[in-house]
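Lab channel / #folding
Pinned by the channel admin:
"Please post every new chain as: sequence first, then the structure tokens as a reply. Keep commentary short and put observations after the output so the thread stays searchable."

First post following the new format, from NK:
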Amino acid sequence: MPSPAAFKSLHVFDFDYAYLDSGPPASPNYTTWVSLRGLGFNGGIFEKLLPLAHAHNLRIVSIYRRGYLPSSGFQDAELAGIGIGKRIEEAEPFFRAQGAEIATFLAHFATQERIPPLDPNSPTSGGIVLIGWSLAEDTQSTLRKYLHTILSHDASPVTLGIPSPPRHNIDLCSEIDDRKRFDVFFDWVTAHYIHKSVNSENIDDLEFNNPSQEVPRSLHELSYAQRAEYTNLEAFAGCDGTFLFCDITAFAALAKRALFDKARAEKFSHVRVRYMSSGTSPGVLVWAMWMFRKCVEDPPEALYGSGAEKARDIKFVTQTEGNHFIFWEDPEKAIEQYSVAINL
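Reply from TO:
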């Protein structure tokens, strides 16, 4: 767990965002990777990547999202529009506000830290790679100088607006005790799943619910108390658990606006979007990328509705090694895999 002295903080609007920072390497053209972690795990989970950053001409920043101490929490009024069955009309103000805050963080960080801007002659040199999520007008003009790639690692189907397949039956809703529900989630997401193939796009080749008994789970070496340093039960049961129960059409609408709306995409037409799945992650996460790739390669209207059309440079890579926590188990391999995806 990072010591309190390791945390830096950036004030965005009325809120404080804590983050970890590897610092700049001795190079005029380094690239800054900014990671966003969520659903029960805080930004400290990426700490093993930071000592390796300079050797790869990288600056790595890991943000603690709001709701994850020591960043600011949420007020009840902010969460009023999200929750069970909430549709995009109700949930949009929340998601728009979170996007604006992250975008402002990136813009402020870039200017205050004087990081190298993106190199127009090299789409992956300098600038910012956002590993995780999403994006308001003075802020946009600053970000255009820096943000060039968004990488999503093991996106879940719900955040893409895709219903999960019936064989994915990890039921977190039936357990009312927050701690027990998180323990079920923790054991599921940190495990290794042995698939027949992660490239066949045949659902029968994926393992959804039965993890390997031979390969230890990620973070198995941590005691229960040590595990708590990298997780946040309150956020899992509160803000994150709340927004994940929004109607799935709300997430589909957000995906459509971000990826399949040419008018919106013009503001950041140069930004490349990359999706990566890991080789022994839960089957539903591998399957989600398969399904999303089909939506991108076929006309996306079938899932995302009338007017949806491919509006961005989107590419995919399926890794055959590592699970959802590759950055913990083998941080050097994680940097290699992320670099491959970013440079597609």
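NK: The two ends are 33 Å apart (CA to CA).
TO: also worth noting, The mean pLDDT is 90.
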